[in-house]
C-alpha cells in the first residue's frame, strides 16, 4: 500500500481517537453526551455505538431472510461481513436503509435514531450512505460534476440555477478527488473511466454527503488486483472518521482490510454464525462447512 495513504489513514484514526478521548475526559467518560445539546434528528454516538440491530427478522413468502439477527457496529469501526449467497447480507442492508421493513426487531443509528420509523430519504439525510455492487454515476458528466451534484445542498430549481460553489465547497471537492485518487481525471467524462475508477467515483459521491456510516456491497467485484489494493487503502484511510460495513466475498480483500486485527462477522441463514478475527472464523468448523465449502 502507498505510504501517503497509510499515513493519512493513521492520522485520521489518531485524530478521531484524540477527539473521543477529549470528549470522555470532559464528561466523565460519557463522550460529551451531557456537554452539548443534540439537534433534532441528530444521532447520539456518546456510547460509542454507530449501528445497533437487535433480533431483526424478515420473511418473504415463508422464507426467513433474516432470523433474529443481532449486530453492533462501533463508531469509527471498519467491519467486514461475509457469508454464502442467501445468508441475508443484502436484506440486512435493505433494513438499515429503509428499503425493507422487518417483521420484528430493533434497528438504531446511534442511541437516539430509530431507523424503522424513517423513510429511505430520511435515512440517507441523517448520515447513512449505501453503495451497491454496480456503480451508478452520471456517465455523461465529468468526474468533477458528479461530485458537485452529490454535495449536500439545496437542489430546488431556483437554487440550482443561481448556485455557485463556495470556496469551502471547492476545497471539499478537491479533498475528495485526492482521497479517491481521481484528481487527474477531474474533467474527464465519467463514462470513460475504468470500472474501478467508477467505483471510486461513486464512493466519492457518497463522501460528498458527509455520511457517518457507509454500507458497501461487494465494492471490489470486477476490479483488477491493483484496483482492489487501492480500494483497500481508501477504506483504511476512511476508518475512524466514518464507520464502514463492507459486505464481501473476496477473502484476499477482507484480509487486506482487517490486517488480522479487526472483527469479521459471518452470516448464515439470516443469523450471525460466527464472529472474530479472520483467521479465527476461517478455522471455525461451522464456517468451513457452510461457507468455505470444505
Strand content: 15-25%
Q: Count the beta strands.
A: 10
Fourth-level CATH superfamily of the largest domain: P-loop containing nucleotide triphosphate hydrolases
Total helical elements = 11
CATH architecture of the largest domain: 3-Layer(aba) Sandwich
User: What portion of residues is helical?
Assistant: 25-40%
The domain count comes to 2
The largest sheet is: 6 strands, mixed
| SSE series | HEEEHEEHEHHHHEHEHEEHH
For the record, what CATH class of the largest domain applies? Alpha Beta
Mean pLDDT: 86
Overview of the structural elements:
- The protein is α/β, with parallel strands linked by helices and 294 residues long.
- The chain has two domains: 3-127 and 217-292, Rossmann fold (3-Layer(aba) Sandwich); 134-210, no CATH class.
- Helices cover 38% and strands 21% of the residues.
- The protein has helices at residues 3-26, 89-96, 120-125, 143-149, 157-161, 167-179, 195-208, 225-238, 251-258, 278-282, 285-292, and strands spanning 49-60, 63-74, 78-82, 104-109, 113-114, 128-131, 213-217, 243-247, 264-268, 271-276.
- The strands form two sheets. A six-stranded mixed beta sheet has the order 6-7-8-3-9-10, sandwiched between helices. Strands 2-1-4-5 form a four-stranded antiparallel beta sheet, with helices on one face.
- The radius of gyration is 19 Å and the shape is globular.
- Mean pLDDT is 86; it is low at 23-35.
